[in-house]
Amino acid sequence: MPNITRREFTAGLAGAAAGLAAARAHGKEKKMRPSVFGGVLVGVQSYTFRKFDVDRMIAAMRSVGLSSVELWDGHLDPAKATTDADFTSVRRKFDAAGIKVSAYCVNFKPASTDELIERSFRGAGLLGTSVMTASVQKPIVPRLDAYCVKHKVYLGLHNHWYGPSFKGDLSQEFDGPEDFEEALKGRSRYMSINLDIGHFSASGHDPVAFIREHHDRIVSLHIKDRNDDPARSYTRFGLGKTPIREVARVLKQVHYKYAANLEFEIEENDPTEGVRDAFAYFKKALESA
């Protein structure tokens, strides 16, 4: 090996760094392999990274190895994204990183305007997906179904655990199987389910049996772990009572074709390591199922 001076060595390092930066700037950064295990695509619900901007979230996802995202409206608000370029610029960032937007999550309020709904559905197409998810109340479902048909977009209705302290009208919310059945009855084939297995299990329902029976109508899954204490507290994966391993097994059995999205509710200031741990747990569950 030839002798080199410290100055030459330092210059060499600087040149290498500059070359890497240039490659990244020109979109030549190595793309990630698809995060598919046991035939199931594993992604993340971007609410997990709610304290991160899009660029920092992408960096975190790349470090974990997640190639798919369900993009939450807190990261791309259709009320503020008023032009096509607002959506396509975000899509380009994910494309450059090798990350696919599997679904666009917009939580519509009962009084949402037609303009906002139209922009949201159009935005999904600009992001490159034909799947949306939403936390809504039942009365708005018929309006949303009309936009599903117009744009040929599948919309997954999201369920929650409400608990004994909930003061609203539970009959208007999505909690269990009967709520999905009521909302989907008479609707188009595009009106669908976004099943959150943590909330579903916390509410006393069996996500494994529900997935087995209704997987063809579930266009997005939220994978999280919750305990069975009165607050149904969130935990790291494998420490709670949500049957994550059993869910992984049934997803393989039914050849689930949409994304199973990790949603990590704790450690919100920087959930990266918690997501890495959750990813490893779920990946192992899929590979050993």
Keywords:
alpha/beta; TIM Barrel; 8-stranded parallel beta barrel; 10 helices
State the separation between the terminal residues, measured CA to CA. 51 Å
Largest sheet: 8 strands, parallel, barrel
The CATH topology annotation reads as TIM Barrel
CATH superfamily: Divalent-metal-dependent TIM barrel enzymes
Major sheet: arrangement of strands: 2-3-4-5-6-7-8-9
Structural class: alpha/beta
Shape: globular
Averaging pLDDT over every residue, what do you get?
Answer: 91
Range of strand content = 15-25%
CATH class: Alpha Beta
**CATH arch. level architecture:** Alpha-Beta Barrel
Q: How many helical stretches? A: 10
Put the structure in a nutshell.
By secondary structure, the chain is an alpha/beta fold.
Structure description:
By secondary structure, the chain is α/β, with parallel strands linked by helices. Helices cover 41% and strands 15% of the residues. It has 10 helices and 9 strands. Strands 2-3-4-5-6-7-8-9 form an 8-stranded parallel β-barrel, surrounded by 6 helices. Strand 3 (68-72), helix 3 (84-97) and strand 4 form a beta-alpha-beta unit. The chain starts with 5 loop residues before the first helix and ends with a helix.
